[in-house]
Design a protein that fits this description.
Elements (H helix, E strand, L loop, with lengths): L1 H18 L1 H20 L12 H7 L6 E4 L3 E8 L2 E8 L11 H17 L9 E5 L6 E5 L4 E2 H5 L9 H20 L5 E2 L8 E3 L5 E3 L6 E2 L20 H6 L9 H8 L5 H5 L2 H4 L6 H14 L10 H9 L3
Antiparallel strand pairs: 1-2, 2-3, 3-5, 4-5, 6-8, 7-10, 8-9
Helix pairs in contact: 2-4, 6-12
Length: about 325
Amino acid sequence: MDCITKMWSVLKKFRKEEEDVPNLFLQNGSALLEELISFSSGTYDIPIRSYSAQQLVKATNNFAGRVHASTYGYICRGTLQGRSILDKMFINIPGNPASHSDFDILAGAVRDIAVTSLMSRNKNVLKIIGCCLEFRYPALVYEDARFEILANFLDPNCDKLLSWKSRLKIAKSIASAILYLHTAFPTPIIYRILNPHNIILDHHCVPKLFDFSFVISLPPGELQVEDDLIWIPGYFDPEYQSSRANEDDPEHIVNYVNDHIHKDDQFKQIVDPKILNESSVNHQQLQAFINITLRCVQAKGENRPDMLDIARKILQFE
């Protein structure tokens, strides 16, 4: 009975949106075009294939088979025109404390589509193959990477081994993708929400970045820009974190590392035990990597290196 009720709810919502398809297509298409022009200064040359809402409903069996909860919604797996796909839907859940305004979700959706498409040539970004502009919020269609979220491998309860060599490869690959964001466009694009939940490993263990909903472009000639805070527990900018030290926040990852890095047995205190159990791990290399990390989380922003410097140093590791 619950299944039937749920399906009927989805169908009613879809029928209502189906009646507004022309208006939604024009509204969302206009917003997407503006975003593409904004981030590329009108120089983008990558066509974005448009799919209909009916195609995605059929391809995903009414959005069944959800495989990941994203910032603004969820990702589900489906089959479209004989091809396995991932469909990212944006939703707003009434009454959810973490819910956002319709404007924020629409802005996040079109920004995600625009920047993902502009980054599609980068092998370390989840590849977009199209979108749908006929829903209330535009949907993304990715190629199916048969993935696992990186955060799952880093969970202490996970019994899968992610070797130091693999972790170093992930760090190099994601650093390259972030550097591309900073250097390949008319003005640098800042990702803002980099954490293990926004990185996947495909079936070849190749890391891919996704979810560009919160990126922001620096104004021409500027090194910083103000915008609303993106709240990610444990990952605040250290400078901002120190200004709200009395608030009831989860322990900051930087504080944890700083509390343990100078203890005698530092590796056992802050390094994943699975890495320490590897016979081939070079402790000097681990120490060098930790030192680079600590430079990135200096209390004052002016004391931190830029992305170009960090990417170069990480890429030097063998």
